[in-house]
Design goal:
CATH superfamily of the domain at 1-81 and 310-350 in chain B: ATP synthase (C/AC39) subunit, domain 3
Distance between the termini of chain B: 33 Å
Distance between the termini of chain A: 41 Å
Subunit structure (chain B): V-ATPase is a heteromultimeric enzyme composed of a peripheral catalytic V1 complex (components A to H) attached to an integral membrane V0 proton pore complex (components: a, c, c'', d and e).
Radius of gyration of chain A: 43 Å
Oligomer: heterodimer
Family (chain B): Belongs to the V-ATPase V0D/AC39 subunit family.
Number of strands of chain A: 13
Keywords (chain B): Hydrogen ion transport, Ion transport, Transport
Helix content of chain A: 55-70%
Pfam family, one (chain B): vATP-synt_AC39
CATH class of the domain at 1-81 and 310-350 in chain B: Mainly Alpha
Main location (chain B): membrane
Strand content of chain B: under 5%
Largest interface: A-B, 24 and 27 residues
Strand content of chain A: 5-15%
Structural class of chain B: mainly alpha
Structural class of chain A: alpha+beta
Number of helices of chain B: 18
Shape of chain B: globular
Largest sheet of chain A: 5 strands, antiparallel
């Protein structure tokens, strides 16, 4: 294991950063308590150490730095409060701040506290003023609306009285104002004092308010309501709501009490109101005066608040970052365990070997003027380290494709290296059209050119995903231009780019739609498919045969690559049995069947033979001793087939049987004479760190290993057939793509063209564009992407990839922004 | 319809059942309670809760916390979840969900009426009301002087109106009256809810009848114990028991004549499901009875989640969350008053 960590490995391949994980080591850091904070903050800036939680059994508030974390949370809360206030006031926090703020958290805490108190006070004052203001507004409304009631009631009462005087038969209706009662009751002794209450009630409650009043007083009230057109700010809640002005007339003290209670219960604000008109007018003018006064005060308050928020906004981002950093530092410190002497913190963590943390540590120790510097030492452990690939912005998207399936086991061969080329290539085989390729290229170039701008802002889900994979799409576009040129397709239109078609009509009688009558007049078309095939009757049989065979060739090549990678893994981890009992029989099996098929395909292309390959392959199994006849491609083919068949049959038990027995023997060798070691193992279990070293004592269950091997073998043998068949999807999707694009071209664009009508042409072009973008550029891209993904995850990676590692996630300030809440 | 609900339940109830099961997964676990019980200050509790689903509700609270703030915020979360479910629900689930809140409505009505009787401020009383049991005209309750007015003025508009048929009297309100009113209302409510669940049929009826029967029996026992030594007559007492449940009808006859706690115990021990509850208590003790009942209830509520395609999970979830909030309140109170030794007295672990 030590050798593995030192990074030599198999030594067969040139140093490739991406091919294997960076060598990692477990380091222990002993930091004096006084310089701990500074040291951890330097480590966070370096971002190359993944701390292990040594206090996982302690709950968050029992840890050493719980108090500081609480303080940070409190500061974060204040910052959130500021942010909310700034959002309400419409002030944006400036991203770049001009002044460098103090880095001292204690000062910042005090400052934030002061600012919060100030802001809260300003808000409270503002609320008070606002409340007074909205009360006055409501009062004014009441004065206006209720004044209208009274004046209209007076006029109608006067009119009625006149009417009654003339007719003497006044009938009471519900519209009759109650005020007339008062005037009509001639007898002064019977005169009842009618009281009234005026105010505003929320409109949605007005119905139930009226009902409640009616019920509570048994109908002995008179209620008038008027709708206020514009929403009014409620003095209590400060929210805008729709309200009605009401006036209730009642008689008697008990009714008054009830009405008052009901008003309170319904949140109806009451205002004093005077019956006499001149006093009303006086009140209105008074209220208006006070309103304008209050308005100026309010504005001044708002301005003050705005200024305060602006100053906060200038430094907000900086503070926010500082608090986040602080919090993460204390969270990290909480993962360290306190030394017995309580003077040092002891931490453990994974870090890549290349990292020179010594610098950061020395700096930290120097800066904090601590008498003892931090000590840093490498621990040896059998625990599996995390996997860490140093990716850049180009390779990271491809690595993510692999990681989505499973993170590589520590130091195992990384399929991500090959994915960079094979993934876009397999995609392009299914998406071969250089017109569509150029569209994709333009789209992704937009993303790449505006990279800096887009990276700094928050994108929605789909855009974010596209943006993250921009370099994958770039490669996909480039490759699909390449395959498009080979297929000679440009929105399904063939072009004669590289030279003229090799074929021409023998005489005038031959039509375009058939190859009959064409003769070869020039050299073979130099690159890709001859354009003359397009639209001919034999186009499909020709292209199908071409693409089908090409798919098998590509598939066999990629599967072979996968098996060869398993060889590199075996040599790297020094597991000989995997080479002899897995790699060799596997490669023999695959190549004796499908490698042979590939060979036949190439031979057939070279020789131009008419041999039927289906027939050859099928009868190779059914009757291997029969003569091949016309289907013979090379001399001695029958003998070769017999040998290959024999090899394939031998390699199956070879894969199945020896490995479990060899493993069993190795296990027994290792444990000879170790039967009495139970004591040592209990010793070890006392020390949690060395617990993993005792891997020699694991159970060896032969039946389990055997069943496992059997499953593997069956999977491989069946998989060799089904995976090869699976690669035919390359042909199928490419066929679907070209057929779809030719349908859109011929049935939409050419059809519209044929009408010779500008309107139809425009409609046709629009339909064509939408179909091309929607179906071909979006849907087809997605489906080809998914199929390429599947070919990598299943057909390629199952040959060698374990993918049971875990990712290196260092403590780093650079990653802080990502975890935005 | 029994047996076929699996086929059609998910058309309307599937989404919400998934939601409620997700909510249930967010309930605090025994490990959480262990940690909470070790807290030294309310800030510790906040810190611990911030790692749970309560986090977003508590994170913006300024630092000197009060128990009431914690409870208020936790209840707010429950209310938000309830409202979300109610918005998404279709008939008959929405009616079922509304039924769950009627109990709180009754409690709120009683709280306001009692409070007004003792001349408390209405606004202050409103703050104490459970938010799930609020209705529009609740503040108007203060106007009423007697039951008849109470009904005629306010409650006739609320869903509680039908339950009032048995307690309309013109007597003035006093403590005894109100308590009887509460129990009469509750009896009518439970019976109505029970009938509603029976009407729904299927697994809902099966599971809810079990849960409601337990609730009814618990109330019967509590009424009996609380009315010992008061002027409530046996017949009146008998009238307050709900007409269903395991104890109905013979247990009720026996409970109605009980004169002390040991007699109650004698009656209850005849019923196997309650035997275990009473066997935990020593003779003559009634303090721990509440906790024992709560524990039994929690056990039954958790079992409701074992079966699929029924509405019982909604009821069970609401109840469990309320129990959790009660637990949090107790723990916070103990921590705030430095009575940590008593933390375990009243906390009912849910998982």
């Amino acid at each position: 294991m030590a050798e593995l960590q030192s990074g030599g490995g198999g030594g067969c391949c040139p140093p490739m950063d991406l091919f294997r994980s960076e060598p990692m080591q477990l380091v222990q850091i002993i930091i004096p308590i006084e310089s701990a904070h500074l040291t951890v903050s330097y480590l966070g800036e370096l971002g190359l150490l993944q701390f292990k939680d040594l206090n996982s059994e302690k709950s968050p508030f029992q840890r050493t730095y719980a108090a500081q974390i609480k303080k940070c949370a409190e500061m974060a809360r204040k910052l959130r409060f500021f942010k909310e206030q700034m959002l309400k006031a419409g002030i944006l926090s400036s991203v770049k701040s001009t002044t460098r703020a103090d880095n001292n958290t204690d000062d910042l805490e005090v400052k934030l506290g002061d600012l919060e108190a100030e802001l809260v006070e300003i808000n409270a004052n503002g609320d008070k003023l606002q409340r007074a203001h909205s009360e006055l507004v409501e009062y004014k409304l009441v004065l206006q609306k209720a004044g209208e009631f009274f004046s209209s009631a007076l006029t109608s009462a006067a009119a009625q009285q006149r009417e009654m005087e003339s007719q003497q038969t006044g009938e009471m209706t519900i519209e009759t104002p109650l005020l007339t009662d008062k005037e009509m009751s001639a007898d002064p002794s019977k005169q009842i004092k009618l009281g009234f209450i005026a105010g505003l009630v929320p409109r949605e409650k007005s119905m139930s308010f009226e009902r409640m009043l009616f019920r509570a007083t048994r109908g002995n009230v008179f209620l008038r309501q008027a709708v206020v057109d514009e929403p009014v700010v409620d003095p209590v809640s400060g929210e805008k709501m729709e309200k009605n002005v009401f006036v209730v007339f009642y008689s008697g003290e008990r009714a008054k009490n009830k009405i008052l209670k009901i008003c309170d219960a319904f949140g109806a604000n009451r205002y004093p109101f005077n019956e006499e008109f001149d006093k009303q007018a006086q009140a209105i003018s008074e209220v208006s005066g006070r309103l304008s006064e209050l308005k100026t005060t309010l504005d001044a308050g708002l301005l003050h608040r705005g200024n305060l928020l602006q100053t906060i906004g200038d430094q907000f981002e900086q503070w926010n970052l500082l608090v986040k950093k602080e919090k993460s530092i204390y969270h990290t410190l909480n993962m360290l365990s306190l030394d017995v002497t309580k003077k040092c913190l002891v931490g453990e963590g994974w870090s890549p070997v290349f990292a020179t943390k010594q610098d950061a540590l020395e700096r930290a120790a120097f800066d904090s003027n601590s008498q003892v510097g931090a000590i840093f030492q490498v621990l040896h452990t059998k625990e599996s380290p995390p996997t860490y690939f140093r990716t850049n912005k180009f390779t990271s998207a491809f690595q993510e494709i692999v990681d989505a399936y499973g993170v590589a086991k520590y130091r195992e061969a990384n399929p991500g290296v090959f994915t960079i080329v094979t993934f876009p290539f397999l995609f392009a085989v299914m998406f071969g059209d250089w017109g569509h390729g150029i569209c994709l290229l333009l789209g992704t170039l937009v993303l790449i050119v505006r990279e800096k701008k887009l990276a700094s802002q928050k994108l929605d889900d789909i855009t974010d995903m596209t943006f993250g994979g921009r370099y994958v799409i770039l490669m996909m576009a480039l490759f699909s231009i390449y395959t498009g040129l080979i297929y000679n397709e440009f929105f399904s239109v063939p072009f004669e780019i590289f030279s003229h078609s090799a074929y021409a009509c023998r005489d005038l009688s031959c039509s375009e739609a058939t190859t009959v009558g064409l003769i070869k007049v020039r050299d073979t078309y130099p690159f890709g498919v001859d354009p003359v095939w397009h639209g001919s009757r034999s186009e499909l049989p020709f292209l199908n045969s071409l693409k089908m065979k090409m798919s098998i060739l590509l598939g066999v090549a990629q599967m072979n690559l996968g098996i060869i990678l398993s060889y590199f893994n075996a040599t790297f981890f020094r597991i000989g049995v995997n080479i002899w009992c897995q790699f060799i029989p596997q490669i023999i099996f695959l190549n004796s069947l499908f490698g042979y098929l590939s060979l036949l395909i190439i031979l057939k292309w070279i020789t131009g033979s008419q041999a039927d390959l289906y027939h050859v392959m099928i009868y190779m199994f059914l009757s291997p001793t029969d003569e091949l006849g016309d289907n013979q491609l090379f001399p001695g083919q029958k003998t070769a087939q017999l040998v290959l068949l024999l090899l394939a049959f031998v390699s199956v038990p070879w894969m199945l049987l020896p490995k479990p027995f060899i493993l069993k023997m190795q296990h027994q060798d290792r444990h000879q004479g170790q039967s009495y070691e139970a004591l040592q193992s209990t010793d070890e279990s006392l020390q949690p760190d060395t617990n993993h070293d005792s891997h020699g004592h694991e159970e060896f269950e032969f039946s389990e290993v055997f069943v496992h091997q059997m499953i593997h073998t069956i999977e491989f043998v069946l998989g060799a057939v089904s995976n090869t068949a699976s690669y035919l999807r390359l042909w199928a999707l490419s066929l679907a793509h070209s057929e779809l694009s030719s349908v859109f071209y011929e049935k939409v664009l050419l059809l519209a063209w044929g009408y010779n009508n500008i309107l139809i042409l425009i409609v046709g072009i629009i339909v064509f564009i939408f179909a091309t973008v929607g179906v071909l550029l979006v849907m087809e891209t997605l489906s080809a992407f998914l199929h390429a993904l599947r070919l990598h995850w299943v057909e390629f990676q199952n040959k060698f990839y374990e993918g049971d590692g875990y990712k290196f996630s260092p403590f780093s300030f650079a990653l802080l922004d990502d975890e935005d809440e | 319809m029994y047996g076929f609900e699996a086929m059609t339940f998910n058309i309307h109830g599937g989404y919400l059942e998934a939601i409620v099961r997700g909510y249930r997964a967010g309930l605090l676990t025994a490990a959480d309670y262990n940690n909470l019980c070790q807290c030294e200050t309310l800030d510790d509790i906040k810190m611990h809760l911030s790692a749970t689903e309560y986090g977003p509700y508590l994170q913006n609270e300024p630092s000197p916390l009060h128990t009431t703030t914690i409870v208020e915020k936790c209840t707010l979360k429950l209310v938000d979840e309830y409202k979300h479910m109610l918005c998404q629900a279709t008939e008959p689930l929405s009616t079922f969900l509304e039924y769950i809140t009627y109990g709180h409505m009754i409690d709120n009505v009683v709280l306001i009426v009692t409070g007004t009787l003792h001349e408390r401020d209405v606004q202050e009383l409103l703050e104490k009301c459970h938010p799930l049991g609020m209705f529009d005209s609740i503040a108007t309750l203060a106007v009423a002087q007697n039951m008849r007015e109470l009904y005629r003025l306010v409650l006739v508009d609320t869903p509680l109106a039908p339950y009032f048929s048995e307690c309309i009297t013109s007597e003035d309100l006093d403590d005894m009256n109100i308590e009887i009113m509460r129990n009469t209302l509750y009896k009518a409510y439970l019976e109505d809810f029970y009938k509603f669940c029976q009407k729904l049929g299927g697994a809902t009826a099966e599971i809810m009848s079990d849960l409601l029967a337990f609730e009814a029996d618990r109330r019967a026992v509590n009424i009996t114990i609380n009315s010992i030594g008061t002027e409530l007559t046996r017949d009146d007492r008998r009238k307050l028991y709900s007409n269903f449940g395991l104890l109905y009808p013979y247990g009720h006859e026996e409970l109605a004549v009980c004169e002390d706690i040991d007699q109650v115990r004698g009656v209850m021990e005849k019923y196997p499901p309650y035997q275990s509850i009473f066997s935990k208590l020593s003779y003559g003790e009634s303090q721990m009875l509440d906790k024992a009942f709560y524990e039994e209830e929690v056990k039954r509520l958790c079992l409701a989640f074992e079966q699929q395609f029924h509405y019982g999970v909604f009821f069970a979830y609401m109840r469990l969350r309320e129990q959790e909030i009660r637990n949090l309140m107790w723990i916070s109170e103990c921590v705030a008053q430095n009575q940590k030794s008593r933390v375990h007295d009243s906390v009912v672990f849910i998982f």
